[in-house]
Specification:
Blueprint: E1 6-11, H1 15-30, E2 36-43, E3 52-53, E4 56-61, H2 65-69, E5 75-78, H3 84-94, E6 100-101, E7 105-106, E8 111-112, E9 118-120, E10 125-126, E11 131-132, E12 136-138, E13 143-144, E14 149-150, E15 155-156, E16 161-162, E17 167-168, E18 173-174, E19 179-180, E20 185-186, E21 191-192, E22 197-198, E23 203-204, E24 212-215, E25 218-221
Parallel strand pairs: 1-2, 1-5, 2-4, 5-6, 7-10, 8-11, 9-12, 10-13, 11-14, 12-15, 13-16, 14-17, 15-18, 16-19, 17-20, 18-21, 19-22, 20-23, 22-24
Antiparallel strand pairs: 3-4, 24-25
């Protein structure tokens, strides 16, 4: 969708929020007319409003967010936070604002190899260097971080964080709230159930039950 200069806020002030701002800049530079009018970041605390964040500024806080967005007929928001549960809580807190929209932020350097068969909801972020192949279905507010690969016929729920260099093989199903650690690999046909965490570099050869932490090839109950 061409948002024609949609005013845009990015939640958070950490590294991933700054990186997603770079993706927004990438999108704007690719198009003759700016797709987004970046306004600034949403800080967690009011005392951080006005602080410089990379090449942007914190323009409001969680507390003052409602007042800030009330001045726009339509305004976009991006939630790039790297923790699934926090992403969900932010959306549930702000979704009451009827003038708020959640565009999918897709880096021009990401490759959607068969875009006609790739379906996604709202608020997804696909970062630079990532590859999505064909017949992929994903829900809302997923983060596909740098240089991750998602294979054919993958089903993804919502509020999923896929960290850099993750490999998701064909036919995998990833349920809501899953976090895949950087460099991890999910074998073809495996199901990773909701709210599970796959650790850094772990190789997952079989299904993962809900609420589990996977470190290498061992499973440990979440506390």
């Amino acid at each position: 969708m061409n948002w024609n200069g949609l005013p845009l806020l990015i939640f958070g002030t950490s590294g991933i929020s700054k990186e997603v701002k770079n993706v927004v800049d990438e999108i704007n530079q690719k198009n003759y007319e700016k797709t987004y009018q970046f306004l600034g970041f949403v800080a967690e605390q009011e005392k951080d409003v006005g602080r410089k964040i990379g090449t942007g500024t914190a323009v409001c806080s969680d507390e003052s967010f409602g007042e800030y967005v009330s001045h726009f007929s339509v305004i976009g928001a991006v939630i790039p936070i790297g923790t699934p549960d926090i992403k969900r809580k932010i959306y549930e807190r702000v979704c009451c604002h009827r003038n708020l929209v959640f565009p999918n932020i897709i880096s021009p350097s990401a490759r959607l190899m068969d875009p006609v068969t790739i379906k996604m909801g709202m608020g997804n972020i696909i970062c630079s260097g990532s590859i999505l192949t064909t017949e992929i279905c994903m829900g809302d507010f997923n983060l596909i971080n740098l240089s991750a690969t998602v294979g054919h016929n993958v089903k993804m729920g919502s509020y999923i964080v896929v960290n850099p260099l993750v490999s998701v093989s064909g036919g995998v199903e990833v349920e809501d709230g899953v976090l895949l650690g950087a460099g991890s690999a999910i074998k073809q046909g495996v199901k990773v159930m909701e709210n599970s965490i796959v650790g850094l570099g772990a190789i997952i050869p079989k299904d993962v039950e809900k609420d589990r932490v996977m470190i290498c090839q061992g499973a440990y109950e979440m506390k």
